[in-house]
Amino acid sequence: MSKKYQEYSIEDFDKFDCLKLSKRFYLILLFVLRGYLVWLMSVTNMKDRVATIQWIYPETSLFFLSLISGVMGLCVVFIISFRRPNAANWVKITWPYCRTMLVAALIFDFGINLIAFFYWQLTSISWLICQVLIVFALITLCFTSKRMQINLTEFPQALPEK
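Now predict its structure.
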């Protein structure tokens, strides 16, 4: 059991003796939640609230589709934020499935872009190829990260006070 932790130092652990979340979690969440991030950037732009969205998503329906595909990412963010000792039972049950949820969100997002390309002709082939490469790389990161695997097996427990 201790061999899986041998490459980590004290700074890699949180106050509940769990390994801090992998940066890959956050990288994948950034990609999945990009529609919400663009929306937040546009809301904070005081001069022109719509310009940011139109610059990144020239077709408005692509922006809304990106928001829909980011819903699973929002669920993972909520689970991460509620991940602590004495968490609700649903958080403890769903925590080990966060990687599966992220992969499903990536595949769903790619599926929406496929539909947008083939059915509605809203995206370009170069963006579709770029997204295939990004999604493949992020899914590969999900399954090659030892730290992420450890994160999914751990759940914070209340530590005895000294």
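The chain has nine helices and no strands.
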